[in-house]
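Q: Fold this one first, please.
A: Sequence and structure below.
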Amino acid sequence: MTQTTDLRGIVPERGSRDRSGGLLLTVLLLGQFMGLLDASIVNVALPTMRADLHASGAGLQLVVAGYIISYAVLLITGARLGALAGHRRVFHLGLAVFTVMSLACGLAPTTGALIAFRFLQGAGAALLGPQVISLIQRNFTGAARGRALSLSSAAIAGGIVVGQAAGGVLVSAGLFGTGWRTVFLVNVPIGIALLVAGPRVLPREEGVPGLRNLRAQLDLPGLLTLSAAVLLFVVPLVMGHELGWPAWGWASLAASAVLLAAFVAVERREGAAGGRPLISPRVLRAPLLVPACVALMFGPGSWAAFLFTTTLHLQGDLRMSPLESGIAFVPCVAAFAAVGLTWQRLPARLHRPAIPAGFAVAAAGYLCVGPLAGGGAAYEALTAVIGFGLGVMPITMTTALQHVPAEDAADASGLMLTLMQLAQVIGIATAGTLFLSLAESSGSTRHAEYGTGWALAASTLVGALCALHVARDRARA
């Protein structure tokens, strides 16, 4: 990996390196894992939440997507704040916001309040998430950095997967009669423990530049334009089906396209004026970053939609309890973990070719979602196939960051995670709406699984085709 930053004085001396490095990595990865976990842990709780809060289908989608939207659009800004105010300081701030908002979500009295708290909880995750990779880049060198980045990639992707099974266990446990609220309240003691341990473990940073020229450094015009474009795109997709696709929804989609074009213009002007656009041209020139990120979007996007729709089916036509539906995903979690934790043992020449192969396997699995929607051992084996295929996401993420200089780590990690989160929002909004429409028209969630499975297979196959470019681009790497 390119070494452009002097890390002397940051990395612990040999006598304490293993212990202090291990404690530092534990705190960082637990915080990162917790933030990613909450993007999917609510899925199993959705049917219980619907009954308790009398939430609509659109309301349930916003509970899931609201967190991801704020997380996605604020990730790069969170990375910039870390570079300006200090990664250690912003990590603690994000962790504090996330922990407080988790408590608020767990106590929310209405669907509207829960959606609002989820937006704020996502903002806290967006502050702490980007600091993890930046702190790894600054505090580890050589092989230790490679191992730490690989574990970070596994934590990011694994948080998406493990949340499904963990949510089922927590909802079914219903500690003290909390029901679905447990999936949020479980973050509180973990967050407090990390807030106590963090100041003792995370190294202090010297020479933090401070918050001078905040507007230019954070690219506030770009942030506001991108946020508006995302909201105008997602909200009509989520609300449209329930409201009968009103005219304002189509106008909102058109306005989203206009604002996306405006965002491109704003970014170009920001760069020409010597500012720091949210998407830096220098970061985009890093070998393999762009094609890997494009391919990566299709994995989390299809997976988020799969979690959302399949949970409603398992607790719908199949009448499973939250615990049973969560356990149904254990084979998927195990297969995903097996690939994510062992891929480095493969010969190096197989790493990048494994990416399109994995996406192709997942696409084949999605094609069988409808035919095997009756449940049973065959369906659980199918989830393992999908998890095995999407287990290549850590490989893709490591490949995307492999040749990024240390000084660009914050922007690169922010860009990568933003694209992943936006992909999840789009997946839930599109495939989720398709599933709800098919289930309502047929009166059967099992029937809806057919069309949804075909749509997910098509999108994942596109991801496989995009990943072929990463597999073939050996010369530049």
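Q: Good. Now the second chain.
A: Here it is, same layout.
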Amino acid sequence: MSDAVRALRDAAPSALAVLVRRYGDFEGCEDAMQEALIAASAQWPAEGVPDSPRAWLVRVASRRYIDQVRSDIARRRRESLAAELEPPPAAVPAVDDTLTLFLLCCHPELGRPAQLALTLRAVGGLTTAEIARGLLVPEATIAQRISRAKARIRSSEGFRLPAPDELAARIGAVRNVLYLMFTEGHTASSGDELARVDLSAEAIRLTRRLHEDVTDASGETAGLLALMLLTDARRAARTDATGALVPLDEQDRSRWDRAMIDEGVALVTEVLDRAPIGPYQLQAAIAAVHDEAASTEATDWIEILGLYDLLARLAPGPMVTLGRIVALAMVEGPAAGLAALDRAEGASGDESGSGSGSGHGGAALAEHHRTWAVRAHLLERAGSTDAASLAFVEAARRTLNGPEQRYLAAKAEALRASAG
């Protein structure tokens, strides 16, 4: 990644926050920022990155916004408003407003699904397709949610910072968005890289800021930060020197980041002692059991199964169901896991607003490539080589992540070769 591209990614969300707070017009500011980003992508590689990328983007986008408003004859009200709101030249404050923009996007006029979609698009920088894959809903549905969210805000009082009594509700939505940002960064939903390190690192940075700056009696912000640290601690061991995926049970655990693990374990231990148990805390506790085990065989799978049982009651979702099935298979054997998987795929359910950020219906589970990958691994353990090979092929077909696809296809080929 070039310096110019990195500077653009770092500066864009905070610059957009400055514009939205200045003008109160999210859609117009987003359009102006897109034009500024196009100008920067052409100018910065040739002329160099400016000393203050954010100030440059704010200045250029402000001009584009004013030009847009003034030239829009059909919207004379906006033209008049722009003339009144045009500020005198002023320095852009050296404050990271990204979390502020998160809170603005989690508007009280919007439902949770619309808050998630809008914030992931505007602040997280995810595409509509990436958001759809993360939430396990159709891409057209996400596009519709984003469009309606902008219209709903436009017809209300506009963007505003939450009152103190609204803060707790908005923070819950912010946590959900940060979780989905991290998930997309940890394993990209598409592309030729297993992970998007910049995205997961930004999610960790913002979650750490949220934990430090905003009081949270629920303990879920601490739980989320612990979950991210305990998961990201394994990043170096998840791929080999060629970039190929290395599954958890084959990873060199000496490459795991012990400092991150120690911090994550300390966070989740402390919060479980003082706060009500929440979904992110439970997920962090599961990650801690994995990280503190010397090997897959030495992992306390009975404890993990118990944690998943509790998590499934608090925040049911497809990935929770799948994680529990894996734990069940490790405790009771692959046949028990396959039977549970069949039951889960036959179940029905509606979309959930849980910590998993996704629906928990059997249809959503059956369509996901990870379901096919789990089925393939269980079939392999059960000795059903031909069926396992076919399931690996189907899992590879359904994922758009290059390293995952190559790993799954290689597993299928190895099983075919061993059976031949």
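Q: Anything worth noting on the second one?
A: The chain has a mean pLDDT of 85.
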